[in-house]
Amino acid sequence: MKQESETHRPPQKDDPKEKTDNSANFCRGFYRRTNMSLSHSELDHLTNIAIEAAQLGGSILTDYAKKGFEIHKKSQINLVTEADLASEKTIIGIINRTFPSHQILAEEEGLQTQDQSPYKWIIDPLDGTTNFAHGFPMYNVSIGVEYEGDVHVGVVLDPTRNELFVAQKGKGAWLNNTPIHVSATPKLGDALLVTGFAYDVHTVADNNLKEFCAFSLRARGMRRTGTAAIDLCYVACGRFDGFWELKLNPWDTAAGTLIVEEAGGKVTNYTGKPFSIYGQDIIASNGMIHHEMVRVLEDMRAD
Predict the structure, then answer these.
(1) Taking 80 as the threshold, does the pLDDT of residue 73 lie above it?
(2) In the CATH hierarchy, which top-level class contains the domain 188-302?
(3) Are 188 and 296 in contact (CB under 8 A)?
(4) C-beta separation of 137 from 153 below 8 A
(5) 71, 125, 228, 239: most buried, per Cβ within 10 A?
(6) Which CATH number fits domain 7-179: 3.40.50.300, 3.30.540.10, 3.30.920.30, 3.30.70.3270?
(7) C-alpha distances in angstroms, 110 versus 32, 144, 173, 258?
(8) Under DSSP, is residue 231 helix (H, G, I), strand (E, B) or coil?
């Protein structure tokens, strides 16, 4: 029998920005600590449901991409489509039917708390909405499962390429059931990097453009896919060597960061301290170029 004690927030991991970020605190929520680890069978069951939900969500995205959809604006460049909403509704329905006591944090619906369960499903039903809205085939469904503040399952499905990335904490990471590992690129000058820009890029000074220029002059190449989950998965399987970005949300990073770590990569904040999905900045790399990336960002942001 599981023993319950006091209520906890997931660990803040030394990110001072989190302490004053009300939206991050709302997303983080609370949970009951059980002091029990997940069994192998529990982990597999969570993973199987996450895969099923992602596949159904991905099928919905594919259907809408073929038949068309309505687009609405959250802000000038932040879009939401019928496909986002339909995918999220289906994914949440599967989780609620299977795990009615679990918490859910979804991009469109926000945080749904269920009696402060130690389980939380973190869902992006369509990561890459702007790509999707323009018919650019680079988008995905991302689902992470948090238990007592740590992500234990990560699933990212790219329905346009039929690529399914999966990770289990302490067990490894896979692409279509084949184990994956980060690249062996030894230095930044040989690296292919990827990044993105927040929705306030037009209106704020801290918009990643200075950092983008700095890395462009130091790395072999730069790319931008428009979807953080894919960026992280591509670091995990060695297609990219490093990734950094500002102002992401938990649903952007929950699954992908676990996939990177389980593929042998390293994930921190901009100063090299432990990363939190509720934080404000992220570096993910093959580990070998990580110190160089931290140094570039520290230098650029010290100016």
Answers:
(1) no
(2) alpha beta
(3) yes
(4) no
(5) 125
(6) 3.30.540.10
(7) 20, 15, 28, 21
(8) helix
Residue 196 DSSP one-character state: -
Nearest to 44 by CA among 145, 124, 125, 118: 145
pLDDT score recorded for residue 114: 63
Residue entry with tokens 């000038």: 76
What's the CA gap between 209 and 203, in Å, rounded? 12
Token representation of residue 16: 């001072």
By three-state DSSP, how is residue 125 classified? Answer: strand
Report the share of the chain in percent with pLDDT over 70.
89
Mean pLDDT for 28-56 is: 91
Length of the chain, please? 303
Which pLDDT band, with edges at 50, 70 and 90, does 23 fall under? low
* Locus of tokens 């297609």: 239
> What residue segments make up the domains of the chain, in order of their start?
7-179, 188-302
Amino acid 225 reads: T
Task: Supply 102's token pair.
Answer: 């679990």
Non-local CB neighbours of 9 within 8 Å, separated by 6+ positions: 25, 28, 29, 30, 31, 149
